[in-house]
């Protein structure tokens, strides 16, 4: 079904707010601001920096071998000979990426005090010729992982530090228990919680092909160019992927684990799409094992599992405030049946003063939850402690939080796996599915989600591929509307109009007259024409929308109010204020009957009425409208919602004329 987009008006003094009654809004989502590919392409959660004024890696075979050994542990390496430049570079690292740094003895004493408190810096390795001398000052700095005279020993220590960083990098989302999930506004949720849930559902409905595996391998070869160790692993993956299990590949100490976890942590859409086939395969293997291991065993009543992890002090404070609420691990999650194994991971984090060591104690009742998890001890590449692997987006309820040490640096956190009948979780997931493309499937649903995430270029790519593949006029109509909405969001207005005109052509071939789709096409064309300042075209499109809606809707349907609102905004643009006032009054009359008195759409209507009254110098009446807009918005929207700021600015502007 084609979706409506709402119109908005803006002038230099007074701002109009777009309607909020449509459940799906197109354009850059305010729910998420997601990272894209940077100039330094990182594929792990860890970056290695080497600071040495005498570094010269390209001049000898030994130095080249040194670099290859280091890249076998951390793929992305930056070298510096100047301390100031190194410090400035560290300041640019974001997205909670971690830095391990090798520093020469000559730089160590001066540079470590400058970088030690930076949260990006996880571990420091001092590389020198005089170990006993440098060990003296180094013991005063907790992040120093050791003083070394051989690069081989640094590689060993770096590998351990990197593994700990990758382990800690698993993304966590929190939902406090301050109010019911059924009433929770989506813009109060962490975007990672929403999008990993929907992405997981989408990826499990897509039929991936061998071409998707080949595309992934091609990307990996570019990412790991020059890294002999990982290029060998990639070649093995290409030759043997189907001969091994997804769990085996995920637990192999190679590119796959860190690359996947980083993509899910940052919601890197390019990488997630590239790895979609693997996410699908890995989840399905875990689910199949779950059926064999736990669902078929009637006496499997309860499991207690453990996971040690380091989290920032700020994240720990958020977790304490969310006690009693929900916690989601947004990536695949490794746990153990062995408490001491989990505790060991927790204690390792105490050397870093930026982190709190957490021992998660997880209670799982298999009979009460469809969550996919499996014992992989005999399947994993590394058959280590009794490991249990959960699929991505596993949700727990947060229980007791208690300290395990006197310094308040090590804590035990009780988690209970949410049951299928958990009221809050069921209500929340139902809301999310309803809000985000409920009628779409597969790649089309993914395109819609990308648009909601503000990933317009990627959504455009998805829809263009789908359009090229289909010969069905019904599908062409829907996809042309979606692609037109993407082009609108990108500011490609002529191309957007072209898409909507194509949708009208295929609509006439495929459909009986049906207002819902046809009126949406005309409405969306009106929005684009207005952006192009082609007001007569916009007005014609909106009037066609209204005429079609009147054929099928009752007189107080909120959709009619949206049409009147959009018509009113165009008349205001044309400075035909009498017609604009009439249209907004009709929108208000419908919404006063159809909506609750504190509905945010009423605030939008009062604001738009105030704009017209302001333009016609009716300042007292304009102020009354702006007052109502502010009052309603404050009672129905989050305190940081941009609409509130808009209404307050408009109220301030009219106050100057009182």
UniProtKB/TrEMBL annotation:
TPR repeats, residue ranges: 477-510, 519-552, 561-594, 603-636
Keyword entries, A-Z: Repeat, TPR repeat
Taxonomy, superkingdom: Eukaryota
Pfam families: TPR_12
Database matches in SUPFAM superfamilies: ADP-ribosylation (SSF56399), TPR-like (SSF48452)
Protein name: NAD(P)(+)--arginine ADP-ribosyltransferase
């Amino acid at each position: 079904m084609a979706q409506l987009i709402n119109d908005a008006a803006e002038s230099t003094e007074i701002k109009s707010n777009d309607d909020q009654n449509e459940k799906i809004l197109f354009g850059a989502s305010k729910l998420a601001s997601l990272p894209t590919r940077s100039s330094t392409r990182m594929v792990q959660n860890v970056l290695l920096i080497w600071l040495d004024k005498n570094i010269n890696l390209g001049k000898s075979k030994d130095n080249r071998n040194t670099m290859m050994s280091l890249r076998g542990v951390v793929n992305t390496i930056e070298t510096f000979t100047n301390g100031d430049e190194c410090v400035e570079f560290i300041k640019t690292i974001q997205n909670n990426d971690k830095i391990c740094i090798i520093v020469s003895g000559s730089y160590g004493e001066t540079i470590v005090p400058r970088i030690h408190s930076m949260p990006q810096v996880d571990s420091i390795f001092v590389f020198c010729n005089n170990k006993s001398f440098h060990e003296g000052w180094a013991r005063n700095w907790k992040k120093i992982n050791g003083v070394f005279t051989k690069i081989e020993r640094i590689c060993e220590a770096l590998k351990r530090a990197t593994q700990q960083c990758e382990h800690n990098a698993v993304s966590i989302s929190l939902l406090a228990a301050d109010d019911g999930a059924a009433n929770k506004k989506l813009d109060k949720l962490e975007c990672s919680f929403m999008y990993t849930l929907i992405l997981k559902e989408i990826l499990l409905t897509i039929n991936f092909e061998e071409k998707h595996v080949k595309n992934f391998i091609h990307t990996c070869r570019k990412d790991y160019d020059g890294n002999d160790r990982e290029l060998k692993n990639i070649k093995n993956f290409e030759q043997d992927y189907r001969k091994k299990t997804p769990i085996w590949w995920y637990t192999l100490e190679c590119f796959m684990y860190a690359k996947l976890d980083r993509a899910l942590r940052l919601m890197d859409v390019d990488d997630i799409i590239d790895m979609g086939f693997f996410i699908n395969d890995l989840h399905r293997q875990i689910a199949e094992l779950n059926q064999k291991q736990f669902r078929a065993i009637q006496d499997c009543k309860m499991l207690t599992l453990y996971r040690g992890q380091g989290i920032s002090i700020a994240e720990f404070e958020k977790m304490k405030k969310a006690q009693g609420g929900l916690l989601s691990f947004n990536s695949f999650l490794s746990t153990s049946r062995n408490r001491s194994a989990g505790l060991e991971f927790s204690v390792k984090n105490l050397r870093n003063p930026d982190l709190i060591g957490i021992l998660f104690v997880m209670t799982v009742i298999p009979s009460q939850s469809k969550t996919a998890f499996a014992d992989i001890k005999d399947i994993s590449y590394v058959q280590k402690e009794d490991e249990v692997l959960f699929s991505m987006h596993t949700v727990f309820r947060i229980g007791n939080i208690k300290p395990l040490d006197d310094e308040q640096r090590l804590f035990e956190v009780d988690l209970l796996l949410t049951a299928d009948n958990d009221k809050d979780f069921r209500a929340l997931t139902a809301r999310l599915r309803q809000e985000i493309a409920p009628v779409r499937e597969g790649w089309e649903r993914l395109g819609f989600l990308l648009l909601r995430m503000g990933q317009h270029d990627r959504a455009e790519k998805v829809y263009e591929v789908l359009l090229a593949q289909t010969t069905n006029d019904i599908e062409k109509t829907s996809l042309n509307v979606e692609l037109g909405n993407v082009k609108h969001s990108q500011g490609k207005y002529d191309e957007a109009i072209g898409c909507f005109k194509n949708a009208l052509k295929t609509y006439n071939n495929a459909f009986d007259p049906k207002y819902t789709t046809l009126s949406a096409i005309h409405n969306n064309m009106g929005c684009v024409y207005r952006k192009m300042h082609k007001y007569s075209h916009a007005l014609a499109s909106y009037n066609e929308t209204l005429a079609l809606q009147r054929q099928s809707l009752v007189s107080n349907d909120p959709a009619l109010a949206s049409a009147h609102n959009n018509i009113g905004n165009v008349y205001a643009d044309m400075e035909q204020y009498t017609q604009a006032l009439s249209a907004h009054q009709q929108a208000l009359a419908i919404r006063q009957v159809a909506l609750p008195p504190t509905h945010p759409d009423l605030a939008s209507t009062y604001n738009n009425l105030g704009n017209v009254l302001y333009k016609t110098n009716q300042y007292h009446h304009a102020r009354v409208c702006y007052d109502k807009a502010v009052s309603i918005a404050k009672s129905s929207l989050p305190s940081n919602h941009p609409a509130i700021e808009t209404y307050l600015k408009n109220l301030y502007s009219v106050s100057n004329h009182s």
